[in-house]
Amino acid sequence: MSKLIFERSVEGRGCSLLPESPFERTELPARLCRGKAPRLPQITENDLCRHYTSLAQRSFGVNCGFYPLGSCTMKYNPKVNEVAASLEGFTEVHPYQPAYAVQGCLEVLDTAERYLCKITGMDAVTFQPAAGAHGEYTGLLLIKAYHHHRGEDHRNKIIVPDSAHGTNPASATMAGYAVVSIPSAPDGCVDLDALRAAAGPDTAGIMLTNPNTVGLFDRNILEITKIVHDAGGLCYYDGANLNAVMGIARPGDMGFDVVHLNLHKTFSTPHGGGGPGSGAVGCKELLTPFLPAGQVEKTGEGYRFAAPGECSIGRVKSFYGNFLVVVRALCYLLMLGCEGIPAAAQGAVLNANYMMKKLSSTYDIPYPGPCMHEFVMSLQSLKDDCSVSAMDIAKGLLDRGIHPPTMYFPLIVHEALMVEPTETESRETLNEAIDAFLALYEEAKENPQKLHEAPITTPVGRPDEVKAARSPVLRHRFGEE
């Protein structure tokens, strides 16, 4: 086990290379000073470099190997997008600069908005939300403002399918709504009878994604949105799975009124590690009066920020969102173009169906499809027969250099593994992953104990996850504590 940087610390060592300040030293008032100096590690530059290099080598990402994490679109992102986002004209701006001094940045926001409107079938987009769940919350605030403006505050319920992402009911609750969960039909899609029973005068809207979390495109999507609209509610589209349909099917054409997009998933920014993200929110014209401040408009004299409408929900984040994420997304859109965007979606669907077909004779596929960008396997029978769980198979994949897929989600599938290959993986990589899954299945039957102990080749073996959850160690304990 590698030492923590605090454990490498030796008193008196350091690596400060900063020159002496030419300015006069000014002492802060005592009320602004710490009671005692912070306990920072004292370490040489050489050891510091080795420490972080070691951590980087132990980290696994899409630049290391196959990363089929479902519902997260963990795909390779072109490095040219990083180059574009590092240009000085984008990184050195200040949000308080006057509009005439940041015309290029405003053009980025305006162009990205137009492209995303075309892809989603929406009429306007705000880039303020900082992440997907933040986008959900913002979209729900738009819905709430819309009903309030119409004098329909009694609409206090949001319908959420039981296969939805967990952030959906959480966001609805944060927005002040009561959540009505409806079951899935046997085919994995929305139960229309349950939806009709749930929709009524108190319905504010529905939240769902299409394709859904079991990787299926709901063939009844137009009927679903019609039922909600006929009840007086609005339809919210969770864009987490847009990677499967971008450039092919538009949420706006399906009947949705508002949508959030994960620019940090679908449109290029590397996803994970806590950010930065961008949960851009698009909406139809009926909701544009309620958008947050900071919308860009083009005039005869150039670009400027439009004054917010009287009904605006106000800012949901300081300034204009995570701008460099938008730069990356626009670079991605410009490079792929009108032909490349749908081709990426088609590649994602092809890869998922290829893997599902190859594994279907061995693993149980509860919803055989055809699937969209991801598919779900159930290992319940394997657990019943061999006492090998989805967790065991996932841990075994680590020993084969593959990041595990999503485990135990969606909740409607027991012992679930959700696999999303993404369009950026080659057939050779997919075949290697398929062989790994098949080999693990045979190993589960022949030597289940080995999988119970997996992984055995990684820097960290299998932890006691129950103890980690109940008694987490969240900070280093110094010797005197």
TrEMBL record:
Any Gene Ontology biological process: glycine decarboxylation via glycine cleavage system
Instruction: Enumerate the residue ranges of region (Disordered).
Output: 449-481
What InterPro entries does the annotation carry?
GcvPB (IPR023012), GDC-P_C (IPR049316), GDC-P_N (IPR049315), GDC_P (IPR020581), PyrdxlP-dep_Trfase (IPR015424), PyrdxlP-dep_Trfase_major (IPR015421), PyrdxlP-dep_Trfase_small (IPR015422)
- Residue runs in coiled coils: none
GO cellular component terms, semicolon-separated:
cytosol; glycine cleavage complex
- Key words, A-Z: Oxidoreductase, Pyridoxal phosphate
Q: Which cofactor does it need?
A: pyridoxal 5'-phosphate
Residue span(s) of domain Glycine dehydrogenase C-terminal: 344-446
Q: Which reaction does it catalyse?
A: N(6)-[(R)-lipoyl]-L-lysyl-[glycine-cleavage complex H protein] + glycine + H(+) = N(6)-[(R)-S(8)-aminomethyldihydrolipoyl]-L-lysyl-[glycine-cleavage complex H protein] + CO2
* Domain Glycine cleavage system P-protein N-terminal residues, every copy: 43-292
Enzyme class, top EC level, equals oxidoreductase
> SUPFAM superfamilies annotated for this entry?
PLP-dependent transferases (SSF53383)
In short, the EC number is: 1.4.4.2
Q: Which residues carry this modification: N6-(pyridoxal phosphate)lysine?
A: K265
Q: Name one GO molecular function term.
A: glycine binding
UniProt function note? The glycine cleavage system catalyzes the degradation of glycine. The P protein binds the alpha-amino group of glycine through its pyridoxal phosphate cofactor; CO(2) is released and the remaining methylamine moiety is then transferred to the lipoamide cofactor of the H protein.
Assembly, per entry: The glycine cleavage system is composed of four proteins: P, T, L and H. In this organism, the P 'protein' is a heterodimer of two subunits.
Protein family according to the UniProt entry: Belongs to the GcvP family. C-terminal subunit subfamily.
Q: What is the protein's given name?
A: Probable glycine dehydrogenase (decarboxylating) subunit 2
Which species expresses this protein natively?
Harryflintia acetispora
